[in-house]
Amino acid sequence: MHIHLLHPKQVGLESSSAIEISWAHLPSIFGPMFCARHQEYVVALEFLEQEALNTVPTRPAKHWPQAIWKHQPELKENWISELFKCERGTAVEPSMATIQVLVEGTEFQHRVWHALTTVRPGRPIAYSALAEQVQCRSARAVGSAIAANPIAWLIPCHRIIRRDGATGEFRWGAERKQAMLNAESLSARR
Last residue of a domain, which of 68, 102, 136? Predict the structure, then answer.
């Protein structure tokens, strides 16, 4: 899969723009996901807890405060097939498509997020290795940029682990992160 990261300004938008964003909930083997898109751009992709299945999560709403949020569950099947290779209707691994992601962040965050997209499935790397890759002396600063990632799965922050091999933190839960790493490791061996 090729991820093309863009800042809203690169396409003539501000996060304060009054744009229409379509959203739906998608199933995955790692739990339900919230997906939001503006035209061809993915603007949010998050894992959800069961109690949040009928709303727009707080984080995307903060990123796009003036947006008109349009629930479009009928688009779910198209989005699943575009974002994931599927097995019996559940997301298993990223698709091979080029996916455009529109995400607001600092230049440093974009550099880290782009570097994340180069980490291969089944081959997690340490925070310190990613810091070296983006020419940053602070693994902690890289960790902060990773923690700010608003696009789960496509910007694969779950592929970054601690130097000692421990899974480390994950906004959507350490168990989910471990499950994602295990699934990608199995897929990579096939």
Answer: 102
